[in-house]
Amino acid sequence: MGVLSGKVVVVTGGGNGIGRECALLAAREGAAVLVNDLGGTLKGDDAGSAGPAETVAQEIRAAGGVAISNSDSVTDYDAVASMFETAKKEFGGLHAVINPAGILRDGMFHKMAVDDWKAVIDVHLNGAFNVTRASIEHFRAQEDGAYVLFTSTTGLIGNIGQANYGAAKLGVMSLSHIIAMENAAKNVRSNVLAPFAWTRMIASIPVKDEASAARVERIKKNMRADQVAQIAVALCADGAKDTTGQVFAVRGNELFLFNQPRPVRGMARVEGWSPESIIDHALPALKANYTDLGASASVFSWDPV
Question: pLDDT tens digits, residue range 226-247?
């Protein structure tokens, strides 16, 4: 008996990488799994294929598990809603959604094409809305449900060349937190993961020198997608029912709990502020508490510890 025995779980982006490992592990832990994957390229600029999702579903069935596949896009709300109805019809219920589906269209912001901005926002942020909005009423009615959404340290901390991705991923964090706040009384929980793992997204990062190549090899060896799947599946289980509204990061065998933005210092002025007094007094006083543009990311360098 696994931690998801009797559960029905939908996993998006389940044909490759982290999604694939989440689907396989959820099935091994006893869940009936709907494996969703558009089967497209990393940029999401093709028609896709039903092959990747069905291959994973077949692998689950071959191992004695229960699974079906779906190749609809998370950007299509009606298709997502239909996918959940299929899961409920085929398996008799729906209890959790794991949503790592994503694409990348990196580029410096001053050169970013409008279509590249919109496509990344559509998959990551609108996709997260679609999978949660299309299932939230079902979860509330049964007073049971879990979302595992995916953010990124690009959103939480920042990364040059990924303004579209970072904006979408920070939005996902806020979406998850508000879902958790609004639905705690109905026993519906939502958490987000910021994963470090070797996936085709990471494989797309250019290797420019020997040092970069060495880092890539360490990532491939020490930061695997199956390590991320462990906490994703755990957060869907009844044993995690008291965990909601949280932000986790996974790096190899390390788990991190992130804090969330809160005021760090305040100042008041009885007579009120003017632009001049802010420049002369407030900003110099607050400067010591500014967040550095890059140093805060050093603890999450690509080198495993």
Answer: 999 999 999 999 999 999 999 9
The Cα–Cα gap between 166 and 225 comes to 20
**Cα–Cα distance between 51 and 109 in angstroms, integer?**
34
Q: In the 8-state DSSP scheme, what is residue 297? A: G
In terms of C-beta distances under 8 Å and separation of at least 24 residues, what long-range contacts does 258-264 make, across chains too? Answer: 258/156, 258/194, 260/173, 260/177, 264/289
DSSP string, 179-233: HHHHHGGGTEEEEEEEEE---HHHHTS---SHHHHHHHHHHHHHS-HHHHHHHHH
Could you say which of 77, 147, 165, 290 is catalytic?
Answer: 165
Annotated catalytic residue 165: yes
Distance of CA 88 to the CA centre of its chain: 23
13 touches 37 (CB < 8 A)? yes
Q: How many CB atoms lie within 10 A of CB 68?
A: 18
pLDDT digit string, tens, across residues 101-157 = 999 999 999 999 999 999 999 999 999 999 999 999 999 999 999 999 999 999 999
C-alpha 95/C-alpha 118 separation (Å) is 30
